[in-house]
Amino acid sequence: MHRHRPRHHRHLQGGAGDQFADLPGLRGAGPGSALQLRGGGVSALVRRTPYPAQLELLCQRERAARRVDRSLLPLLAKMPDNCHPMDVVRTAISYSARKTRRGTTIRRPRTSRRRCA
């Protein structure tokens, strides 16, 4: 039982041909064919990408929808410049989870303040 295994390449050079990429679902059906992504042509995706003005409007709407608690900003400003983005997000979420609807911070029980050795 020999099954054909696709060849994996880091990047596609000089046309896709019958080569397979590392991305699941991205492949070329054969020489001279269009690049396929999950059963549809990649050229169809290009037609659906937003124009720069549309993208800017979308970014503005998304930024307006994201509200940041003003009391969180000094905490984030104190974080080191070389801090990993996931650490910043985790800190912001943890801080926000400790806030009540009135804006006061919930005090943690004394036992949870102890550090693990």
TrEMBL record:
Region of interest called Disordered, as start-end residue ranges on this chain: 1-34
Gene Ontology molecular function, alphabetical: acyltransferase activity, acyl groups converted into alkyl on transfer
InterPro entries: Citrate_synth-like_lrg_a-sub (IPR016142), Citrate_synthase_sf (IPR036969)
Superkingdom of origin: Bacteria
UniProt-listed SUPFAM superfamilies: Citrate synthase
UniProt feature, compositional bias: Basic residues: 1-12
Signal peptide from the UniProt entry: none
Protein name as catalogued: Possible citrate synthase, N-terminal
Organism from which the protein derives: Rhodococcus jostii (strain RHA1)
Lineage per the UniProt record: Bacteria, Bacillati, Actinomycetota, Actinomycetes, Mycobacteriales
